[in-house]
What we know:
Two copies of one chain form a homodimer.
Chain A: E1 30-31, E2 37-41, H1 43-65, H2 70-76, H3 90-108, H4 111-126, H5 155-170, H6 178-194, H7 208-219, H8 222-234, H9 266-282, H10 286-302, H11 334-351, H12 354-368, E3 386-387, E4 399-400, E5 411-412, H13 416-426, E6 433-436, E7 439-442, E8 447-454, E9 457-465, E10 472-479, E11 485-491, E12 499-502, E13 505-508, E14 513-519, E15 526-530, E16 535-540, E17 550-555, E18 558-563, H14 564-567, E19 574-576, E20 583-585, E21 588-598, E22 606-607, E23 615-628, E24 640-641, E25 644-645
Parallel strand pairs in A: 4-5, 7-11
Antiparallel strand pairs in A: 1-6, 2-8, 3-24, 6-7, 8-9, 9-10, 10-15, 11-14, 12-13, 12-15, 16-17, 17-18, 17-25, 18-23, 18-24, 19-21, 20-21, 21-23
Helix pairs in contact in A: 1-3, 1-13, 3-4, 3-5, 3-13, 5-6, 5-7, 6-8, 7-8, 7-9, 8-9, 9-10, 9-11, 10-11, 11-12
Amino acid sequence: MSADTARSSLPADAVDAHGLPFAPSRSVLRPLGIADLTIDGGVWADMQNLNASTMIEHAQSWMERLGWIGNFDAAVEGRLPQDRTGREFSDSEIYKLLEAIAWEYGRTGDAAMDERFRALATRVAAAQEADGYLNTMFGRPGQQPRYSDLEWGHELYCFGHLIQAGVARARTVGADDAFVQVVRRAADHVCREFGPDGNQGVCGHPEIEPALVELYRATGDRRYLDQARLFVERRGHGVLGEIWFGPQYFQDDVPVREATVMNGHAVRANYLAAGAADLAVETDDGELLGAVTRQMVNTLARRTYITGGMGAHHEGESFGQDFELPPDRAYSETCAGIGSIMVNQRLLLATGEARFADAVERALYNVVLTAPAEDGRGFYYTNTLHQRTPGHVPAADELSPRAASSLRAPWYAVSCCPSNLTRTFASLGAYLATHDDDGVQIHQFAESTVRARLRQGDVVLKLRTRYPADGRIEVEVLDTPSAPWTLKLRVPSWAHGATLTSEGRRNDVEAGTYAAARRGFTAGDVVVLDLPLHARWSYADPRVDAVRGQVAVERGPVVMCAESVDLGTDVSGLQVYTSEPPVEEDGDVYVRARVIDLAEPKEWPFGREPGTGVVTGVEERGLVRLVPYHSWANRGPSTMRVWMPVVG
Amino acid sequence: MSADTARSSLPADAVDAHGLPFAPSRSVLRPLGIADLTIDGGVWADMQNLNASTMIEHAQSWMERLGWIGNFDAAVEGRLPQDRTGREFSDSEIYKLLEAIAWEYGRTGDAAMDERFRALATRVAAAQEADGYLNTMFGRPGQQPRYSDLEWGHELYCFGHLIQAGVARARTVGADDAFVQVVRRAADHVCREFGPDGNQGVCGHPEIEPALVELYRATGDRRYLDQARLFVERRGHGVLGEIWFGPQYFQDDVPVREATVMNGHAVRANYLAAGAADLAVETDDGELLGAVTRQMVNTLARRTYITGGMGAHHEGESFGQDFELPPDRAYSETCAGIGSIMVNQRLLLATGEARFADAVERALYNVVLTAPAEDGRGFYYTNTLHQRTPGHVPAADELSPRAASSLRAPWYAVSCCPSNLTRTFASLGAYLATHDDDGVQIHQFAESTVRARLRQGDVVLKLRTRYPADGRIEVEVLDTPSAPWTLKLRVPSWAHGATLTSEGRRNDVEAGTYAAARRGFTAGDVVVLDLPLHARWSYADPRVDAVRGQVAVERGPVVMCAESVDLGTDVSGLQVYTSEPPVEEDGDVYVRARVIDLAEPKEWPFGREPGTGVVTGVEERGLVRLVPYHSWANRGPSTMRVWMPVVG
Lengths: 648, 648
């Protein structure tokens, strides 16, 4: 056996309970835990390593420096509210970081990560009150009373992230861990306080819902599931108070069971949908699962950027109307991309449909991969698709206002996205593959090792690929039972002309489905999926008015963009010729283009003829290089566009 | 003499002091007061009549019903803060209404308006404190201290509108009026509090600046001018505290003297520019006037909708970047349109350049005229250029959230726009014409009577026109001195091929300038300006990405739009043929068009071919009717678009 397979023996209980970021007790596909999947190379391994080496420490040091962690110490020492720093939801950042550290320890077994977790968790736990309540913002003399501001207070949201950190700990070191007990006391408090006979409210920001379902799954305690159901079902009936943005902002206008498309704040909408999907699966509620599926399908069809990003409005960080997808005002919050991945992965598990894995991949490569700086010390909060003026580079010690930075910023006053990225990267393995009674399904392609305990016996697979640079994915069977089972590989919806080679036979496979090889495998067998991975033009539905007369380029799952650095001038004059496909050379992508010279703006920008007095010259440029959208601005401030005007 | 000229004798002091909404003591062109200009017919006379008969009463009854006026009574009766209603700036709505009523009385001499003014002013005045301070939101036990929240408190903003009401009163009934004394005491308080040795702050919302300059003009008291200068010069140096939106929101990032284009909150930016222009004129500060001119020219060239609307972002109600003008997310607040008119009229007076009068006209016909409902009982707050789904019709007693209504709403929680419209309509005459040492300039065309006291003697003119339905403007000289003087008429920038007929000679005149007739006129002389007023295609600068591949139609100063009511279907499938000009028939405008049938959205709206699987049919429609944008939704909820995709 090669070094690749050194970890091929299955850890005890790895499949059933350990390392699972999401663990539905029933579903079409069953998840594998982070202990079952190791990413051995490629861009996602790089991201996991960067997360482990830098991002987690970077996030923790900012939280320390700004006093967000110190708030817990201040609570213990009776220095609240006077010494409190940060926004009302800053506790949740520590919890998301704890979750990341828990997964990271589970992923690598790095004792330093365990030590980091314990040290941080101890400070958090010390601030828990006798009845299980835990929040540095509310309830003390001089603070607002507990639950006095469900609309904006984020108390249950913070509990939700606390619980998720506890679930991560339970699934990596076990449910006996001291922090898991802290979390259970907190969850018990929530159930007492908001139970059938208690406070009939919900939180302005969903998150407690999926968290409680996961805690039910991790502990078997049904109260948590019942409480999640109460929160999901109460919402949408105007149960929260009036706010400036209206009830749609926090999905309190329409019950989730009745909604047909996502509305309002994009992160809130996705987190709620994740919780509703979890609830539906656990309670075998086909109507509710159908509602979430319908919402996501419609949201993908009408309200999602080509990058997979969600949220067309800066105002309210919210979804726009159908087809309202302005590239230059894309909010596309990093957290909304992560929320979309959460929901789509749940729908993938629940339905087994490839389209949801497609959506996960799109958001991974074009939102999650876009957000972090190459050095792991900066992050996008919003992810615009068109940068009109070169952005401001924040200094290394500069705290950026939310969403104001057009370049990756070290930290934000509202810094939900960096910590969300850390927990996503640490648990990323779980998104790659699943299993069912019949075999193993590969959803995302990376140099990786996959271990699954099938009915037939244990399977270990080694994936070798340079994807997405290259479309060839080679799966070697390292260990297998002798009984037949099925290996499925996703054929992305763009991969027309893909083939699967198995037992020396090469067969065409259909895009947007799973290619299957079923047989009695033997160790050493190799199955190869070949995806025709060429740069291609992508056009928008004519109802997407904001990109009319424009075209984008995608290569496999990667959205490309034009950047001023490559153009030698601002991107506002770029026009591309679409009569031939984009050109690929030495791994780079080029389009034939020209640049129109534009006069300094005249007195009035509207006139009788298109371009009269404005276009002062045309420069043919031949082939112009595009770069992956996720790498934009890595070479410094630039202007950039994903959608490029077509000559004509 | 005809009935038209019944008011042709000049009221005493009308030119020098009375009825002038803005009264620079030096300028290239000198304003005429509302007593000097009467609008005798046409759409603006209708609006003035609707304002007098309905809008003012409508606004006042809402302010009464919501307790905003009652706040002043509550202040007197010691019932604050517990009985206070409305937002922190609600006092200003009463002041804007008082200003409207003052102009309305000055315009018509209607005694009931005078009575209305006195009754309302008495309630306001009663709440003034001994030191001149007047605000129902601050300073009492249980309220925040005075000037403790300059960023959001709007105290000086409220004083600004109070002062403008006082100026209107001074210029219509005289400076001895009791209310003018209230206003002077308030202004004196502001000068004491914020003078050279006082509080070095400014208001988060500019307005006090132009108000203080006008009060200086109305009273001759230079302290007010000096105080205005302090406010203008202090700003832009980060003098206000940090806010979520950043200092650009309230123009505190760059001194107005250095700014090159308007930024941040569009109403704030325009009000500040108005004050800076006033200050520049009074202090003969060419640098400052140049700065304001440069800002407005650049803002018109890069950041203004074809309607003249300003503000491309809902977030922060703010300007976008250059050429960022999404039709479907146009904020284009009614108040920003009014603010733009305030600034452009000031620059017109200061420079005599036609382009500023063009900008005034554009905003008048496409923002100010768009906002009110036909019955005067509803108003747009924002003015979108593309309505994607039919809007909600608010009930007659329904208070709408700011900007949330996509149809004209009776009233808003933040209701700055309706009261701003009332004062604009009541003083509208002043925007029509000016005079200088050499004669009279006609800037806006309406059935009207213009009286001017020239150096050579008194002039009375009667304008007869059906403009903008028709391009013929006939000016009859009713009264004139025998000495020569010059009559100038603006030739709008779109009016290529215009002619001026004077003394029987018809001459070509240049668009974007003033056509001049200079001679010794005699009563009965007629000068005719013929503007070629045809519906025309309008194209955007290629940098306005949001309307690429689309075209608009304008007819004279009026922007047209396509509405679903005329199309019989949603406007999202509309495509127009631009090979022939728009067609006019019986006063209506038509374009040749087709409608593409669009399938229900598929799973993903981006694909390899434009329209594949989406466009399911094409229906040629022949000629499709357009309607003036300002009349959209008058036939009920609809979808609408100003920019129409071009077939191709």
